[in-house]
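Sequence in, structure out. Go.
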Amino acid sequence: MSEPDDRDPLVQGVRLRGERHRRWLRDGDPSVARRLAQIGVLGWLIVVPMLIGIFAGRWLDARYHSGVFWTGPLMMLGLALGCWTAWKWMKST
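Output:
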């Protein structure tokens, strides 16, 4: 039988799951404080890019006298970036 390909998503998923299981056996369940800290980090991962988008949009709108033409799209772009970052962070932990 041949060796599994390291680029195969199934093989990567199984290895990641095995590593998480070994970490759980070694460390045990995370504390309540650690879980609350993770929730806090997730919140900031989503909020900070959104705030950056809002501030950049307001600056562009003030500079070009365009109402909220830039604020809305940049806020949504920040939200999308924040959600994507949070998703990647959750999948890695």
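Check: The mean pLDDT is 90. Residues 9-92 form one domain.
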